[in-house]
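Notes from hallway chat w/ T.B., transcribed later so I don't forget. T.B. wanted the structure written out for a chain they're using in a teaching module, and asked if we could keep both sequence and structure tokens in one place. Agreed to drop them here.
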Amino acid sequence: MVDRLNETLNKMPKYNDNLQRSVYFKFEKVVEKYVKRFLSTTKGQVYNEDGQVQIYIQNAYNGRDISSVNAQEQEVLYKTNQRFKVLNKERLMINIISCWRNIMSEELKKGIPLF
């Protein structure tokens, strides 16, 4: 199923500009599973200002623009296994848990994962 979704995304237009992703985790264990799947981003303004983590992707070029499916979402979706280079990050304390709040990144063809 994942391969079919990746193949379908190949048919969608690429998006070339800055992107962002707001993430809110209800449970800490979800964080570990999150980074191995498709990455959904927004090409508009910050989607959820209350998100615990804000991920910014500069000069994106590999995400697939799927906003034609739902124009209100302004969604750009990455296929599985896309890699990113972290350029800058800001730490935030939530209750007694320390996490990254703002992550500035850029796409890589080969390199370290986003997290």
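Follow-up for T.B.: The helical segments are 2-10, 28-34. Might be a good example for the class.
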